[in-house]
């Protein structure tokens, strides 16, 4: 994990004179913009004025038009944008590099909030604020990569199963049922126990192995619905081959539910990563993960609540942001809910 | 550009005695949980270039299934074709490999559907969908294909075609959508066009416009047109000959004029008498009694006998053959003479 260490010197205990109000601003960044922007939205009801634009309305442009006017979507987007910046450039938020062992001074263990340590310090005397910021990357990487892998694998297999039906479908569907029978946390524990190390990729693998059947089912159902539509028969009658029918006529008409579920699941994957890291089989020390931080802080919770509460708060906020985004995307893509 | 269809099939012209399209003793069955459904039982008809054949019959009579068998778009299984031939310029389509059939579909035989809204892909613009025909089969560039799409939309008389080429199907009215569907189907100048109830979902004035458009396009290109419908009024003006189907069989086969004047099968007669007429205003409208047969449990003998006013004892036991009334007419009724006589007076 050395690749994620930012360049530049670390500043152990040299931030004593940081202005007190800066702390408020920095902490407030993630949640402040959506709260301020909400009242500015004209109305939450998506009433569409007629002739509102000259561009024709496809499902996607319609959904995008709808999304841009949803406070829920805007709030979630701003939150996620901040989280993404935090994951890619954590140096922007803190000058302390928590991966540098010199930043942890055991003598400073379990300090309260101070100008030097905005979120206090943990059992090892490390800065909780810096660790919380740096924890965003692993959460987001696990969430996004698991989502992409499950959407691709589950989506592709679902497309094949729904389109081919018959023996292919039976084989794939029965296989997914085996995966559905595995209790998720137990299954992930077993898979992760096979690895000596724990990092984002092992966690991603464990989650993806258990989660792809869900995407598979949704895709398969959507494909079967689309396959029996008249336009698929019309396309065949006008000479489209099976590949063209599959990717040009069926896929674009069945991808929407997969996108919705993928967005909603992204938050769940982040939560699952934290749970597995908390249990000690996910991301392991010295790597940083919110779940791991919560696990390390829980024994001394009554003496020092900061090392537990701040990563837990960030975790909840991140999961909430992605679930809110998923909700907004679902509302925009499902015409029945309009 | 690839065009293997021309390698497989005889070129245009030089028909000899072979009609453009000949369906010969076609049988189609569906394997269902309830048993074997015999949807088509020995249907035969022929089509010449420039000719319009109307296939008439109520829902479940097998007229659409026959058309889908010609196109090769039946889902097999559950469908299967135990017997029969579909010859296109002398080549049996049922024996062709799938990729050769894909080449024929759209290029040489095309089809339009009843509900044009659901037959158009909702996520692509109409221009993209019409242009797809040229991109896939003719290897045209996106730009040329779009130009062709506008030309075709003009040809099927969609107003302001150039402005509407980027619109989506749901932005068009029912009649306009059917025109787009027609534009797609005639894009590659097919020799046979099958129209499966093209006007059923439209209101009466639009129906007439669509029929007129189809007839005009047919005159321009001399294609053979198979018009599947349950509406006798729609076909009277445009069809050359009519095949009436009942329970998966052709019960009467005749030039359009003959069948309207002197139907030779009790079912055709019943259909004609059920058309509302101004001169019979105030009287009760005739209806054929009973219901179409359950294809899982077909009546013995003539399938129409439970509903037939001309029924005799042998109708219950003997399946009537397709009797030849004249060189161009057939009727599958033991008592076709009586039926003909009954309409003479």
Plain-language structure description:
The complex is a heterodimer of chains A (338) and B (345). In chain A, 63% of the residues lie in helices and 0% in strands. Chain A has 13 helices and no strands. Chain A is elongated and about 80 Å long. By secondary structure, chain B is α/β, with parallel strands linked by helices. Chain B has 14 helices and 12 strands. In chain B, the strands form 2 sheets. Chain B has an 8-stranded mixed β-sheet with strand order 6-7-8-3-9-10-12-11, sandwiched between helices. A 4-stranded antiparallel β-sheet of chain B has the order 2-1-4-5, covered by helices on one side. Chain B is globular, with a radius of gyration of 21 Å. At the A-B interface, helix 9 and helix 10 of A face helix 3, strand 6, helix 5 and helix 8 of B. Chain B: This is Oligopeptide/dipeptide ABC transporter ATP-binding protein. Chain B: Keywords: ATP-binding, Cell membrane, Membrane, Nucleotide-binding, Transport.
What is the fold's blueprint, element by element?
The complex is a heterodimer of chains A (338) and B (345).
Chain A: H1 20-28, H2 32-37, H3 59-68, H4 71-88, H5 128-164, H6 166-181, H7 184-193, H8 200-227, H9 230-237, H10 242-254, H11 256-278, H12 290-297, H13 306-333
Chain B: H1 5-8, E1 21-32, E2 35-47, E3 52-56, H2 63-71, E4 79-88, E5 91-92, H3 98-104, E6 109-112, H4 116-119, H5 126-138, H6 142-155, H7 161-164, H8 174-186, E7 192-196, H9 204-221, E8 224-229, H10 232-236, E9 241-246, E10 249-255, H11 256-261, H12 266-273, H13 313-317, E11 323-326, E12 329-331, H14 336-344
Helix pairs in contact in B: 5-6, 5-8, 6-8, 8-9
């Amino acid at each position: 994990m050395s690749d994620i260490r930012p360049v530049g010197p670390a500043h152990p205990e040299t931030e004593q004179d940081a202005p007190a109000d800066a702390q408020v601003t920095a902490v407030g960044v993630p949640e402040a913009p959506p709260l301020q922007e909400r009242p500015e939205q004209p109305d939450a009801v998506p009433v569409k004025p007629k002739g509102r634009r000259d561009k024709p309305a496809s499902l996607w442009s319609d959904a995008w038009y709808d999304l841009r006017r949803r406070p829920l979507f805007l709030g979630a987007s701003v939150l996620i944008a901040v989280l993404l910046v935090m994951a890619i450039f954590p140096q922007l938020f803190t000058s302390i590099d928590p991966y540098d062992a010199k930043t942890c001074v055991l003598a400073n263990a379990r300090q309260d909030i101070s100008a030097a340590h905005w979120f206090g310090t943990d059992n090892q005397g490390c800065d909780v604020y810096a660790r919380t910021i740096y924890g965003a990357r692993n959460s987001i990487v696990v969430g996004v990569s698991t989502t992409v892998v499950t959407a691709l694998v589950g989506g592709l297999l679902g497309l094949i199963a729904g389109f081919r039906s018959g023996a292919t479908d039976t084989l794939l569907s029965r296989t997914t049922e085996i995966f559905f029978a595995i209790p998720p946390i137990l299954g992930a524990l077993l898979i992760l126990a096979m690895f000596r190390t724990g990092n984002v990729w092992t966690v991603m693998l464990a989650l993806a192995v258990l989660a792809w059947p869900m995407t598979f089912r949704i895709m398969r159902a959507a494909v079967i619905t689309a396959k029996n539509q008249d336009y698929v028969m019309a396309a065949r009658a006008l000479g489209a081959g099976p590949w063209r029918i599959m990717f040009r006529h069926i896929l674009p008409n069945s991808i929407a539910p997969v996108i919705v579920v993928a967005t909603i699941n992204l938050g769940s994957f982040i939560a699952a990563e934290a749970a597995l890291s908390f249990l000690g089989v996910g991301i392991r020390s010295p790597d940083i993960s919110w779940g791991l931080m919560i696990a390390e802080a829980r024994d001394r919770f009554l003496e020092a609540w900061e090392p537990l509460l701040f990563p837990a708060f960030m975790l909840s906020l991140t999961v909430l942001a992605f679930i809110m985004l998923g909700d907004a995307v679902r509302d925009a893509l499902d015409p029945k809910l309009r | 550009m690839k065009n293997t269809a021309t390698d497989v099939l005889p070129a245009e012209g030089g028909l000899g005695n072979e009609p453009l399209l000949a369906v010969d003793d076609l049988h189609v069955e569906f394997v269902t949980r309830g048993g074997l459904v015999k949807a088509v039982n020995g249907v035969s008809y022929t089509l010449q270039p420039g000719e319009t054949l109307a296939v008439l019959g109520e829902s479940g009579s097998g007229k659409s299934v026959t058309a889908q068998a010609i196109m090769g778009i039946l889902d097999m299984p559950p469908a299967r074709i135990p017997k029969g031939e579909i010859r296109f310029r002398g080549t049996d389509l049922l024996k062709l490999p799938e990729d050769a059939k894909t080449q024929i579909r759209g290029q040489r035989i095309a089809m339009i559907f009843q509900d044009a809204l659901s037959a158009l892909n909702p996520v692509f613009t109409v221009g993209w969908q019409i242009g797809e025909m040229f991109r896939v089969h003719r290897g045209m560039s996106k730009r040329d294909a779009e130009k062709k799409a506008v030309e075709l939309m003009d040809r099927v008389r969609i107003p302001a075609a150039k402005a509407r080429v980027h619109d989506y199907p749901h932005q068009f009215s029912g009649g306009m959508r059917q025109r787009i569907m027609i534009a797609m189907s005639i894009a590659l100048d097919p020799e046979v066009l099958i129209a499966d109830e093209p006007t059923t979902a439209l209101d009466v004035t639009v129906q007439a416009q669509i029929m007129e458009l189809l007839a005009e396009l047919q005159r321009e290109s001399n294609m053979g047109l198979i018009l599947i419908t349950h509406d006798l009024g729609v076909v009277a003006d445009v069809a050359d000959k009519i095949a009436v189907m009942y329970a998966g069989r052709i019960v009467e086969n005749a030039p359009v004029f003959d069948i309207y004047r002197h139907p030779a099968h009790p079912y055709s007669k019943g259909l004609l008498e059920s058309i509302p007429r101004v001169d019979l205003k105030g009287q009760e409208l005739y209806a054929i009694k009973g219901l179409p047969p359950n294809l899982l449990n077909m009546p013995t003998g003539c399938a129409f006998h439970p509903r037939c006013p001309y029924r005799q004892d042998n109708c219950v036991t003997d399946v009537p053959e397709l009797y030849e009334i004249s060189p161009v007419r057939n009727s599958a009724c033991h008592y076709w003479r009586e039926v003909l006589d009954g309409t003479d007076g």
